[in-house]
């Protein structure tokens, strides 16, 4: 009798060990960042210290902007609620350290995707949510209407720790113009110094110029010059080494863009479940197993579209309707003459 | 018995080693998993960003190491000017604080209480942005001292253009050496024979006449390049030629000086008040004039009380200069721990170097002040 008991217990133990092993591999498939996020109940998102249209907090502390919406989309996908995001405002200088040190899990802060950033410092860029380029702002009264009118001795205000500083040097060197860079740590001080007349021109990404212009004491006195001196693809960034989390953030962004392409909006998403088009049905979780690979349920993408909206809605709400950049320019779908083109969800 | 003495020390050492070991291992492991490499090779790479204000030749095609040097020199510059000015201002305010004149006394007290109780960063912002808004645009700037312009873009002064500057410099050093030995000689004469020379006048004479001679016979020539207004666009002007001192440097120096001088003034007051009344009366009774009393009796003793806490203020000023980053003065923190760190992503290496640099500067100031303190300490005979 005892013999059997012994055998039985060892069998139970073995099964238990095996079971433990299998659940362990299942969990390991899910990402560590995803697990931590679900345990905490909120997505930790790094944003700017206030850039209208991209990430900006109102008086009540509510964050809005296209960069903010990327984090909200991820929260809707993994936690079921787009409001479960903890935003951490970061300066240009702090942003990458905050991400690599694990203080935040997504950096969605008008950050330019470059080779050295992607390859060198432990980061992975997951996509582009805004195609931008560096430009110059000058006072209208100066009569300058093009960068070709810049002369030796011009002073340019900008932020430190950005690609802007490097592009500015390339630009002025290639034109053979001597210049004085005045680089501040925070954007608010750049604006204040330029506004006071410390610099002849203010240079940063054009979207940033358009947004900061609204903060000037008299926005109408300033114009953004037509020239674009660099490519600035801005997009969300994650830490290197968590492939599943990387995929979740990438496809949350892709879902928003693809939803616009297929005309799925926050208003009509539910009714699209019965659509004839299988691609549309996949985007609202009515066909296929699109969430399984991430360790998510099947309606993760439906929640993004319902709670945050598609890319076009986000752009209109944050950038167009606020008067920052009413014209979408390159940030239009490829089907409508822009360059927004994402791989298909299937 | 011996073991009892050594054991606690060994344990402490072990503890420290373990803690450091743990942090190093932890950092290494985390850096490995995130694919970050450790190394100082980046210092040789091209910096590819420009810096507004530099004491040495620099442009973006030079290395990060050179950018570091630019930042370091800018930090040393603002600290050096700040220490000199705050010491002078502090001494004056400290003495004024003891003045029997009610108005002078209260003004000094008010100044001290006002400036030492407002956070320094706020004061830096105030001087920078208030001054920026108040200063005229280049085209409207009035002439100061017949040749300089104070504008929103900085202070433009004539710049010296030297011929054979090295001869002038060597002569200056020779003059200083002669003055040093002359003073030694004069002191000896006074101690041995009681003979007094007009030391100050003779020193000044040597200091002025020797370098002046180089202009006549040494081929040294000095001319000035004056700043000239230049139009950049319809309403946009700047100055060309001459020497441009950025408003960031002026605002930072002003804020650091006004803030630190309050603390030094209090040290000076404490030092003077720390000397017994009897000393002053005794000195006066042997016929010393009031200025001799201050110079020969009060100050040598008061300095012993003033120097140690003032050393702390010098260290504070140097470290506080790192607030420069807020107003775009390209100091070590802005250039190296700011831009260079962002461009390379080498957070650990760069923060490490920056910390080591500040530590070295602080220790050097401490060492010098301790040496000076020892020198002026009363030697019991």
Summarize the structure.
The complex is a heterodimer of chains A (346) and B (381). Chain A is of the alpha/beta class.
Question: What are the SSEs and their pairings?
Answer:
The complex is a heterodimer of chains A (346) and B (381).
Chain A: H1 2-29, H2 32-40, E1 43-47, E2 56-57, E3 63-64, H3 66-79, E4 85-89, H4 95-100, E5 106-107, H5 115-120, E6 123-125, E7 130-132, E8 134-139, E9 154-159, H6 163-175, E10 179-184, H7 187-196, E11 201-205, H8 206-213, E12 222-224, E13 232-234, E14 237-239, H9 243-261, H10 278-283, H11 300-307, H12 311-320
Parallel strand pairs in A: 1-4, 1-5, 9-10, 9-11
Antiparallel strand pairs in A: 2-3, 6-14, 7-13, 8-11, 8-12
Helix pairs in contact in A: 3-9, 3-11
Chain B: H1 2-33, H2 64-96, H3 102-116, H4 120-134, E1 143-144, E2 148-151, E3 154-157, E4 159-163, H5 165-193, H6 199-217, E5 221-225, E6 228-233, E7 236-240, E8 243-245, H7 247-273, H8 277-285, H9 290-320, H10 332-344, H11 347-376
Antiparallel strand pairs in B: 1-2, 2-3, 3-8, 4-5, 6-7
